[in-house]
Design goal:
single chain; alpha+beta; 2 domains; 4-stranded antiparallel sheet; two-stranded antiparallel sheet; 3 helices; elongated; transmembrane helix; signaling receptor activity
Length: 140
């Protein structure tokens, strides 16, 4: 893998014996894997200075480098802002409150939370028949 325009350099070199050499600029930021004729190269934690045209090239004995068209990589500075996260959180909370207000306005809240009271009559029943009093009399 070569950089060709901004800072021409060798980024990754892999020999036929799978010995690899990674440039110091991409150490711990480059992974590659080979499967048959296919090679996958992944660059991590890209920085603005990594912007360049990258090409894969193969060296064949007796011939100069054979290369295919490259891939232009343009890295722009990306600032992570916690303000955006908090702003999104506030918007979501406000939308939730608005939804709750709309829902509660359509429902009669007083009726919903009011306990349903069933009036029970205050009735006392006494059995005044002679038979029932006779069973409770004390006998000597």
């Amino acid at each position: 893998l070569l950089r060709t325009h901004v800072q021409p350099a060798l980024v990754l070199s892999v020999s036929g014996l799978n010995k690899s050499e990674v440039s110091a600029a991409f150490e711990n930021r480059l992974e590659y894997s080979r499967e048959g004729n296919r090679t996958v190269i992944t660059l991590h934690n890209l920085q603005e200075k990594d912007s360049d045209n990258y090409i894969c090239a193969e060296q064949v004995e007796g011939f100069p480098l054979l290369s295919a068209s490259g891939t232009m990589v343009l890295v722009k500075e990306c600032k992570k802002s916690s303000r955006g996260f908090y702003a999104l959180l506030i918007v979501v909370a406000l939308l939730f409150c608005a939804l709750m207000c709309c829902t509660l306005c359509r429902v009669d809240v007083k009726k919903y939370f009011q306990k349903k009271k069933k009036k029970k009559p205050n009735v006392i029943y006494e059995d005044m028949t002679y038979n029932s009093r006779r069973n409770t009399l004390v006998r000597s």
